[in-house]
Structures are given as C-alpha cells and as structure tokens.
Design a protein that fits this description.
Radius of gyration: 26 Å
Shape: globular
Largest sheet: 5 strands, mixed
Distance between the termini: 45 Å
C-alpha cells in the first residue's frame, strides 16, 4: 500500500500518533481579515442626480434642462453586498432645509418609502434588502414638495452570491495545439489570456469558472497564477499551481472571470511552459445549483474492493447521487481524486457516467507516484460518475466526496474579490507575535477565519493549500474543528479526532498545491493536519466561501 493516502477506519490503520496524542501547532487566531477582500461596493455620485419638477409645480422648479439648482436635492448612493443575497443601501440627500420623501425602487418589483428632514443641509437613510441572485438597477427618488421638485439617481447592483452550473468536461486551452491561444509555449514571467465567457457552453456574464489547469513541458521550477486581470495575475501573492523541471502538474482552480470575459494565466517561472485548461462548470449570479459541504467521505478505494485496480485504459463507475449524504437530484459533486500505486505514467479523467470520455484530464502521474487533485464533475443521469485510467498499465484509485451541488442546496458561492493568503508558516505574523515555523509531524494547525456564524453562517471555505519544504512522504488532511478560538487561547481546547481522508500527497523535496473545499466547525475553525512523519511548511490562500443568507 502506498504511503500517504488516507485510510478508512477498519480497513487499514494509519500509523499511530506520537505518545501523548497529536500535537497542535501554534494556531492562527489573529485578525485574518487583514489583507482580505472588502465587501463589494458600488456607488453613484450626487452629480448624476436628475432633477425634474413635480406634476403641477411648473417648469421653473428644477432649473434649466433638469440641471441642479441651488435649492434642488442631490442624491449620492452607495450599495454594499453584505451576504450572498443581501444588499445595504446608503442614500445621502443634500438639500436646503426641507421635508423630504424618499422612495427606493429595488428593481425586483418591490419598493420602500421613507421620510426625513434635511434640517442641517442633508439627510441620510440606510436600508437593507434581500434579493434572489441576479443583477438589478436600484432607483431612488427624493421629493421636495415644498419646492415642487424631485431628484432621481440610480445604481446598478449584482448580488455577491453565485450558484453553480455543471459543464461537460471540455478543453478550452492547450498551448501545445493552439486551442484557446496561439500554438506556442508561454514564456517565462509572462501570461496568456483565455476567453471563457462564450467559450463552449459558458455564458456571458459568468462570475467564476471551474478549470482544471495543467502545466507541462517544464524545464525549470515555477508557479502558475490564474486571475481575472493580467496585472493581478502577474503581481498577486497567491499561486494556483507549483512545478519543477520535468513535471506535469494539474490543479483545480475556481477562477474569477473579468468583466471582459477573460481569465489570465501567468507563468511565474523563468522558463517557458505549456498550459492546459479544462472547464467543468461555472458560477453565475442567478439561481442554479447551490452547494452543500460534507465531511469527507470515501466512496471508492480500489485497494480494498472486489475487482481491484482500474485496468489499463479501463474505467470504473462510482455511484454518487443517492448514496450516503449525496441526495438524488445532485447535479455535480466535489471530490478529491487520488491515484496511487501506478505502474506506468498516465492520467485520470472523471466525467458523467453514460457519456463518452472527454479529451481532458484531472490527475497526471508517473510510475509509483501518489497524486491527488480536487475535481468538480457533473453527475450522470443514473447518479454515477466514471473515472478512466489513461495509462498502459493498471492503477489504484481513491475517491473522497467533500460536497455536492444541486437546486435544493442552500449555500451560494461568494468569490474573494482578490484571493488572499491567510497562512504561510515560512513567515512571521505581524499580530500576536506568531513566529514562523513548520507544522510538526503528526500534528495540526488550527485556523480561524472571521465570519458571522449566528446570522449569515459560512458553511464552507475554498482554499488553495500548498505544502513545501518536505523531506519525506506524507499527506495533508483538512477538517473542521469543534473548538472555539478562545479555547486555544485559554489552553482548554480538546484534540479533534484525526481525519482519515487526504487532501494532497507529497514526496520528499516536493512542493504540492491542491484546491480544498471544506466544512466549518462550530467554532468556525479549520484544521490543517500534517499526516507525515516529518515537519512541513504550509501555505493557505482563500479563494472564496459558501454562505447562507
């Protein structure tokens, strides 16, 4: 059995913990919101106000051609997305002393009215409104009946939340073949622009896209960053794929899409590489499929099943919908797909059962490697997915389900405006005196992220987790923590149960990334477990969150 693949209790036991139970690295309890994205805010300034006379007030009330007169109200608007479905609106009306009436047309068929006095030259109203996911134009009208005028301003608003639509696995980019970009390797320290909106069945207005990004034909070390903007991709602190010379490395990416419909893939190495990108779904600000996060559950381990390994260029069907906690009607599943004990190089491809195998890949491997990658794959009409072994020799395959998408799932995805780093054990923290240092062997690092669990709970986070400075084989597990942050501060935290699933696997000297979708504990904590026997450094970047409300 290959080292580093999480094991099911009762099938094979993981190596025992060190005496006294697993250790805990110094937890990240500081203000992790620092450096994170602010709530998305849109504004319409007061100089965009249009003033007209009220009916029967006469044409002189508003001044010439609807322009502001010194006595006319002017309206400044500020709309902020506070949850996936909710928006807070601030209305500031400046006017000479007057009694004012305000009407907010929310753009969804509902209105709110109010009154107030601009007794000191201005009046502010604050409103909150809940929406179905989508794009809206909010129109605010302020009436000054004393002077016989009304002022109108508008602001366009898109809900922060998005929902998922599965897409048949389709290759959008292959620089080896001129698919999606010119046929040429991407030079060192340069980027390639990929149009995703309108490509295949991805619609215009898409907010985020699920891509399996693979770097290949590498001749030196480097990393790949995927962002909505070229400048951001070339300067952002975070990364999505890390590689060494001679490697082919895939990683799942949930990438924000620019308003122009593009994503940009930056080669952060000094040597040229080829890049591939396969789409399996996308997120839009519209009602589609919400997300339900699950505790990782193993649904396939060919090392322990009757029938054994997946044969060369063979397939295995795996029942998903209607099995365990994944209901019938689930449209797509989020899982961790691991190959282990391969006898020859190759790749794995996951796709909906009952369909022809696509010309895409999810995991690339060399002989004797154990490699994991996150996958979001549509579920076939029979509730199953198929995994194909693209190798000339058989291999073992392990699948852990971490969540699913469907019309009955309540949580919407809220992308981080800019992905941001919350953990880097190689660096000191500026708060709390937390010093740099690797996560010890067989121990875990608790991380607490800011959120309002009582009102609009976050039910899942999306991370890009990277393990580096490795000296031996091992694997990473990510699980919810039942403790509160205060328990660690007070020294009263109890040790969480050690998880058995794997999120990524490493070998000595490797730097390995993987997308991780995880549940949240009752205290909003998440544990990153070093399941190896040597210490490692961990890097964790926030990509987004799944939130109710």
């Amino acid at each position: 059995m290959a080292a580093g693949v999480g094991l099911l209790p009762g099938i094979a036991q993981a190596a025992p913990a060190a005496p006294g139970g697993p250790g805990v690295a110094q937890p990240d309890l500081g203000p992790l919101e620092a450096g994170g994205p602010e709530s998305e805010t849109v504004r319409s300034s007061a100089d965009r106000t249009v003033v007209t006379p009220l009916a029967g007030a006469g044409s002189g009330a508003a001044g010439a051609q609807g322009k502001l007169s010194s006595a006319s109200p002017a309206i400044a608007l500020e709309a902020t997305a506070t949850t996936p479905h909710q928006m807070d609106l601030s209305v500031l009306a400046t006017s000479e002393d007057a009694e004012l009436d305000v009407t907010v047309d929310w753009g969804d068929g509902t209105k709110t009215e109010g009154q107030g006095s601009a007794s000191h030259g201005s009046k502010r109203w604050d409103f909150s409104h809940g929406y179905a996911l989508g794009s809206y134009t909010i129109k605010v009208t302020v009436k000054d009946t004393t002077r016989g005028v009304q002022a109108v301003n508008e602001v366009k608003f898109v809900t922060a939340g998005t929902e998922f639509t599965p897409h048949a696995p389709t290759r959008l980019l292959d620089t080896r073949a001129g698919v999606g970009a010119k046929k040429a390797k991407v030079a060192g320290r340069s980027s390639v622009a990929l149009k995703v909106a309108g490509a295949a069945d991805v619609p215009a207005g898409v907010r985020a896209v699920v891509l399996n990004v693979t770097v290949t034909n590498t001749t030196g070390p480097g990393h790949v960053s995927v962002q909505s903007d070229k400048g951001l991709a070339e300067t952002v602190e975070t990364s999505n794929v890390n590689y060494l010379a001679g490697q082919s490395v895939p990683n799942l990416v949930i990438a924000n899409v620019g308003k122009d419909g593009f994503v940009h893939l930056f080669n952060g190495g000094w040597e040229s590489v080829d890049l591939l990108a396969d789409v399996t779904g996308y997120f839009t600000a519209s009602e589609a499929g919400g997300y339900t996060a699950l505790t990782p559950t193993r649904v396939l381990d060919t090392r322990e099943r009757i029938g054994g390994r997946v044969p060369e260029y063979g397939t295995v069907d795996v029942a998903i919908a209607g099995v365990g906690r994944v209901p019938k009607g689930a449209t797509a599943v989020a899982l961790n797909l691991t190959v282990t004990n391969p006898w020859q190089s190759g790749h794995l491809t996951a796709y909906p059962a009952g369909q022809q195998a696509p010309a895409t890949s999810n995991v690339n491997f060399a002989p004797e490697q154990t490699v994991a990658n996150s996958v979001i794959v549509p579920v076939g009409a029979d509730g199953k997915i198929t995994v194909r072994n693209g190798s000339w020799m058989s291999t073992d395959v392990v699948i852990d389900v971490v969540g699913y998408y469907g019309a009955d799932s309540p949580a919407a995805y809220v992308p981080a405006g800019v992905p941001y780093r919350v953990v880097d054990t190689r660096k000191d923290k500026w708060w709390g005196g937390k010093k740099s240092g690797p996560v010890p062997a067989r121990s875990y690092l608790p991380v607490f992220l800011p959120q309002d669990q009582d009102i609009h709970p976050v039910v899942g986070w999306v991370f890009n987790a990277t393990v580096t400075n490795t000296t031996e084989v091992g694997f990473l597990s990510v699980a919810a923590d039942h403790n509160e942050g205060s328990d660690y501060r007070d020294g009263t935290a109890t040790t969480p149960q050690r998880p058995v699933s794997s999120a990524l696997n490493w070998t000595a000297g490797a730097t390995v990334p993987n997308l991780v979708q995880t549940t949240v504990g009752q205290g909003a904590g998440i544990d990153f477990w070093n399941q190896g026997w040597k210490s490692v450094d961990m890097i964790v970047d926030v990509q987004g969150k799944y939130q109710l409300g």
